[in-house]
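Ops channel
N.P.: pipeline sanity check, posting one input/output pair.
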């Protein structure tokens, strides 16, 4: 393998793990690591069925975007909602099908898991594209991720609307493998 400076290096051995709910409908976290350096915490909108030993296109892309960095030894992938839905429409149907008490309970547990992992993250990366719209839930996810604003949030790049790019952004929005992380601050919502 050739690194970004043109040096020949050994391809890192990538290890993985994943944590699913007992019912199999929720993926709480997915980990990939290749070194001893601390791990990044990456937040998407909703998870796929990728597991300990199998990657989906998003996880493959995250490996390409992060494995060259010497300050990051891996990443933990978590999501704003941990219900498995590879199609965003399935995620909306799930959310709309829960009563408010059940939704608050499920989201509350997920937010606590995000907060717990964030305490040891080397860097906190938002990568949900335009799938997580501004609102109370996004605000709570960002508060859990940043530990109530004590840590900065980073992105691989920004969409035209200022949202953090999803790793699978295409066309002229595609993220180069060597893209530096940029600090990301959500646009303030109007009080109106």
């Amino acid at each position: 393998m050739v690194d970004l400076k043109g040096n020949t290096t050994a391809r890192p051995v990538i290890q993985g793990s994943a944590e699913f709910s007992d019912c199999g409908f929720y993926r709480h976290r997915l980990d990939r690591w290749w070194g001893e350096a601390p791990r990044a915490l990456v937040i998407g909108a909703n998870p796929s069925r990728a597991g300990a030993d199998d990657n989906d296109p998003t996880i493959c892309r995250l490996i390409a975007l992060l494995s060259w960095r010497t300050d990051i030894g891996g990443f933990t992938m978590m999501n704003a909602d941990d219900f498995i839905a590879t199609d965003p429409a399935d995620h909306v149907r799930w959310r709309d099908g829960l009563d408010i008490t059940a939704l608050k309970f499920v989201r509350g547990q997920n937010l606590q898991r995000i907060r717990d992992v964030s305490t040891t993250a080397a860097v906190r990366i938002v990568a949900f594209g335009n799938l997580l719209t501004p609102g109370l839930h996004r605000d709570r996810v960002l508060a859990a991720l940043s530990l109530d604003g004590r840590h900065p949030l980073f992105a691989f790049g920004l969409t035209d609307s200022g949202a953090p790019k999803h790793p699978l952004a295409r066309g002229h929005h595609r993220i180069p493998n060597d893209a530096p992380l940029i600090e990301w601050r959500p646009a303030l919502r109007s009080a109106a």
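N.P.: looks fine end to end. The chain has one domain: 15-184.
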